[in-house]
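Figure caption, in words: inputs first, then the predicted bound structure.
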Amino acid sequence: MKAMRFVALLAGLLLSMQAFASQFVINHEFSQSTPGQADIMVVFAHENQPVTVDGWSTELQQLVNAALQANDFTGKQGQRVDVAVPAEVQAKRLIVVGMGEAGKLTRAKAELAGANLVGVLPQERNVTLVATLLNDANAIAAIAHGMDLKNYRFDTYKSKAKARSKTTYHWHVANQAAVTQHYTDYLAIAKGVFLARDITNLPGGDGYPQAIAEMAAKALKPYGIKVTILKPNQVRKAGMGALYGVSQGSEHKSYLLAAQWEGSKEQPIALVGKGNTFDTGGYNLKTSSASIVRMQTDKAGGGAVLGTVMALAAQQAPVNVVAVVPLSHNLISGSALLPGDVVTAGDGTTIEVVNTDAEGRLILADGIWYARDKFKPRAIADIATLTGSKVGALGNVYSAVFSEHDDILATMKQAGETTEELVWELPLGPYPGIISSHLADIKNTGSPGAQAGAIFLQHFAKDTPWIHIDMAGNAFSESPRGIHPAGANGYGVRLLTEWVKLYSAQAN
Ligand code: BES
Ligand code: MN
Ligand code: ZN
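Bound structure (BES present):
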């Protein structure tokens, strides 16, 4: 029995290690030189501006622009034309991509343009990308970033996964240094997004608390991130009875993971992410297949905060940030929590567990308390797949944000717009008595549902400036969506990486 468990553990570890293997199939190289011979040449063009490439003769330029006109190509965002290749072009295929009006090219639009090219360009070809007509270095880097994000695959469970060898794309740009600088930062973000996707995608049977803690530690340590892992008995001894309780019915007990990037000596910003590695609902069992399937993604908030810390460390960002991830496995057995049980959180609050399916707030209560107690943060952002109520209110593109701090809300909304990981504010009150309990200090449910979850968490943030992000529904999609392939999308990494920098830059 023990030996079998060991083999299963080893197999799980190997799987999780493989998940990191060469996810980046394209090596983007930026230069100012004149494009040479290629299989495929991609030229990016602005709206209503003539298309040309360094080294093209006037005749060739006229020929190509006439061909584009014949195809009704104006350079509008999203247009793409395959031009019959004139003899003089040093490529077997010429693709012209419209990027819209100059000056209106946002990061999000550029990323999407890059992502949309992924399905068009065959693997492992000699590709030259000409972006000399675009004058925004950040946007050019974002096109490459969009390609990287879309090219992610989680194929560790495929017995015949298609091997994809690394291909170099040769970019031609006007400002090599600036584009390379921006791309280096985007590559760091993509690494964080991939970590979040890997964590979120891992099935609940392999991605239990200990496995996720070890997988994350292994991924984060090479970046100079300080990782602390609290094992189940340490969680219990520290008094985190709410976190411990959620996993008490599972063979895989609760862990707590903290990962700090100290890129500055300022007071840290704490990011607390829900790491419920599977949500059966507990004894308030999720009884429809639609409600229980994909509940391995209930650790997406944890993935988001760990990915964010990885991204900021990989960028060597001058910020002090710590991710705290309470990890649980919400399963049933003879020792699981019962509806109506009372647990005591790390801060001493007693909680009536009216519904065992409202487990996210239980583990986050202790995650937030631990973050406050150990790191004395200047602000806390928690992020969680917390409530179906949020999905009903806002759907799966916006996440819901709750805060009483205008500067946190404003910077979060700004980060949401920049990254198109959009957030929408919901109120924290007045909802008198919403989580009052006759039995204990508070209870873990209330109505309206998303607000009850937020108000419950607010109790544990106390006077630390705090924001709650309910990302239920946002983390995962059965089919590809925009810059994301099918499966987990790493929602939250791009938002929080941007937010930590914006908020950090504000006066302390
Ligand atoms: N993890 C779920 C929330 C969820 C629902 C995430 C759908 C993603 C998609 C959470 O733990 C949960 O079960 N919430 C309950 C709370 C209720 C019992 C108070 C819910 O929203 O139904
Ligand atoms: Mn639940
Ligand atoms: Zn849950």
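Residues 276, 279, 298, 359-360 surround zinc ion (ligand 3) (CB under 6 Å).
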